[in-house]
Specification:
Number of domains: 2
Largest sheet: none
Helix content: over 70%
Number of helices: 3
Shape: elongated
Distance between the termini: 125 Å
Radius of gyration: 44 Å
Amino acid sequence: MPPFLAFLLGAVAGAVASAFAPELQRNARPLLREALKKGILFARGAQVSAVEFVESLEDIYAEAKAEADRAPVAGVPSAGSVSRKRAPASRKRATRKARAIAGKRPAKRAGKRTAKGAAGEAA
């Protein structure tokens, strides 16, 4: 479309719109208000549906978690069982050295040596 024709068509549309503007404004305002009201109601309904959906998902998650906590898994201790971790071997050795330096021997070793010593002396 040539630019002059587009300009002419735009000018005619503007003139017609300005002539009917007050009437269009009176008729369009209630329609626009009604459309906005329906949009607001739709948004509220969508928000309520989304909240209900999230609550439903939270309930399902809580049920699944409760079932998972009750069911034992092979090789994995359950939440109710008490598991004690052993100290690393290097820490055990360091503790024994510290006791030996302080002149204190662990009760197990002292008992074994005493038993061996008593058996050797009796023979």
